[in-house]
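This section describes the prediction task in plain terms. A model, or a person checking by hand, is given the sequence of a single protein chain and must write out its three-dimensional structure as a string of tokens. No templates, partner chains or ligands are provided. The sample shown here is typical of the held-out split.
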Amino acid sequence: MSKNYKRHTITAALPYANGPVHIGHLAGVYVPADIYARYLRLKGEDVLFVCGSDEHGVPITIRAKKEGITPQQAVDKYHTIIKDSFKDFGISFNIYSRTSSKVHHETSSEYFKTLYNKGIFEEKVTEQYFDPKALQFLADRYIEGTCPKCGFEKAYGDQCENCGSTLSPSELINPHSTLSGEKPVLKSTKHWYLPLDKYENWLKEWILEGHKEWKSNVYGQCKSWIDQGLQPRAVTRDLDWGVPVPLPGTEGKVLYVWFDAPIGYISATKDWAQQQGTPDAWAPYWQKEDTKLVHFIGKDNIVFHCIIFPVMLKTHGDYILPDNVPANEFLNLEGNKISTSRNWAVWLHEYLQEFPGKADVLRYVLCANAPETKDNDFTWKDFQARNNNELVAIFGNFVNRAVVLTHKNYEGIVPAQGTLENIDKEVLEKLKELPEKVAGSIEAYRFREALTFMMELARVGNKYLADTEPWKLIKTDESRVKTILNISLQISASLAILAEPFMPYTAAKLSEMLGLKNLTWKDAGRENLVASGHELKAGDLLFDKIEDATIEAQIKKLQDTKIANELASKTVSPEKPAVQFDDFTKMDIRIATIIEAEKVAKTKKLLKLKLDTGIDTRTVVSGIAEYYEPEKIIGQQVCLLANLAPREIKGIESKGMILMAEDKDGKLSFVSPINKITNGGTVN
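The expected answer:
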């Protein structure tokens, strides 16, 4: 049953401050959340859109260790990058806060104490993995070993990033601590747990009976969790980075990041209220029943926002519950899963630098490809096609024609409508109905569909001009042209409104061109939004074509990343079985100099080399043609296994073998003395 709400609290999942934001985050969470917030504001609703950096937990400490800095330095660095890139991308948060702030530590500590004092938590002593050398308990991510499923040697204690299997530290083969290399041991430790099992019946009633309108992927995952039976979940852990447990005798223990992070929405709202100079203004957005609370998240956060956080809110007693949690699936990149650790991503801050003035293009493409019901894929070719074939050729082309023709024929003064023909009436009917369709789709969290309806209006306008051809009619029927251009400008004005949630920079630019201010959603669809006699401002292109070379550069950038990842995953060859010293002394390894070199006919890999060995001049055939050009290695000193039995290769007798070093990528390099050695000198 629909309800009349006085205000809207919109939250977007707190991004981890262990790296920049990438397109997967944007498509799954921040673009749809911003579309929703901007739409509601255009309707005149009271909206508070909150987010902030999640700055606690193991990912932060791992990043800090990797970069050789403190956790605080790490979060300061990435919080700034994330906050600035969100701003430049047009994400319209009312507040972008952070969980390392004083207000968050106070809010989450008080929240914990409230539940503790109400007797909600269960206290348990369990065995956790401990590093006996580093003298600290180990999070799963600080334990590495061989994956029992695929044999990957650097699987984490909670997951194998090679095959994607979910693991526990006890399943790893040859586990070791990443801190010291030692094998972890089990040690007893005390923690506090949220008894989710006690709230199963309530969750069944609240979600499975009360929220059947939720997206099928969200509802289905919640049902699966509940049907399997919920278990108590630890709200504290042994770690030296985070919000300290606010109880005596708990040194070295902090609130689990999954517990303190969602409280970050509340602390961010308090942060906003304090910055406004009205410290109590936060309360209605979290405590009034006439507030609509909506969480925007990715599918990996469904259990936290639909099951765990609601239990936290209910047990506290002072807070409203979410009305909806329209979680999205994952966005892949060029057919592969986005990975922060492997640098397989399109990073927002880099995109904004490399594509200046094109924030809206990425917003558009990510919404058009949004993984709303299933995982979807971003490709640079599709990005280019949508820009060139849709934004430039349809939206931009239509608006440009309407504005340019008005300037050319009427000095930028909007002409009055004359007698309407059937085609005009049909177009005006579309103009009236499409804003309602866009609104209905946004309110149902179907943002791809909403974008399609917005673009349909641009297509209607583009076809209208193509069918009526006012640039030709101006010679024979000027009064008809006035009507056509008037209607085209009405469509353009409505596009400035409908596009604002999706492409705010474009909408602002279009409104400026049309000389319109303070537009609201109820203005969309009006036939007289631009009054006759109104003067337009100078026209400008809303979009420009993206060339092949630009896209090829981005594809190459990803290809280079893939090659680097493949090399990083390769390991050196294992040590061979032991040999006796006498076996080694049988090998006669000498220094020789290449005096002639040529390619072996009809082969790609072989070079025929003539060597001065100090004891003779001999021919050796070597498989190094892919790495060295014959004319460039004359005079090169090499190590030669001189007493290797001769053998015939491609009809050439090869006497000996040149020693080469092989890198992880298979590239061969000469093994040579640093200083020049007399030919025939031995290697011992």
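For orientation: The chain has a mean pLDDT of 94.
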